[in-house]
Amino acid sequence: MERIRIRASSVLALAIVLLVVYDIGLRRGEQLNPATPPAIVSAKEFQLLGTDGKVRARLVTIEDRPSFVLYDGEKSTPRVLLGVSGAADPIFTLLDRDGRTPRIVADLTAAPVANSLAKTVRSGLHLYDGSGKAIWSAP
After folding, report:
1. Hey, what long-range contacts does 51-54 have (CB within 8 A, 24 or more apart)?
2. How much of the chain, in percent, has pLDDT values that exceed 70?
3. CATH class name, domain 45-138
4. Which of 12, 17, 56, 122 lies 20 to 30 Å (CA to CA) from residue 108?
């Protein structure tokens, strides 16, 4: 009878330990694997950082217009811009090593049609030299 009581106590103690360990494991699993991520994430700016901590890309609003900026790997100088112009037209710009001088600009422009209220959309491609002077443009 004493043996049965000792065995029952041991089994009960082992069951309690297993339940506690199981519960702790469940709680850790909830912390490591959070619930479904939010459907929408909002911010004024998103930055993509390199392993060295430097900004490599930014998704940001500039003067209330959305812009995507890619930076070089050396000095965090902007090199590629994709955004929306003040007239709400898309624009793509490749910048020189200084990060300020445009070298290639591609854009879409809504231009008014003569003697009409309608507008026509034209695409443009513009090439510039190192000083920012236009060297070729179409149309």
Report:
1. none
2. 68
3. alpha beta
4. 56
Backbone angles phi, psi at 20, to 5 degrees: -65, -45
What is the 3-state composition of the chain as percent helix, strand, coil, each rounded to the nearest 5?
A: 20, 40, 35
- For the chain, the domains span 1-35, 45-138
Summarised one tens digit per residue, pLDDT across range 29-87 is 555 556 777 888 888 899 999 888 889 999 999 888 999 999 998 778 999 999 998 88
Strand intervals (E) in the chain: 45-49, 55-62, 65-71, 78-84, 90-95, 102-112, 119-128, 134-138
**3 state DSSP class of 5:** helix
- CB 126 within 8 Å of CB 134: yes
CB 66 within 8 A of CB 58: no
Nearest to 48 by CA among 58, 38, 40: 58
Direct distance between the N- and C-terminal alpha carbons of the chain, in angstroms, rounded to an integer: 101
**Sequence-ordered list of residues with C-beta below 8 angstroms from that of 14, at least 6 positions apart, any chain:** none
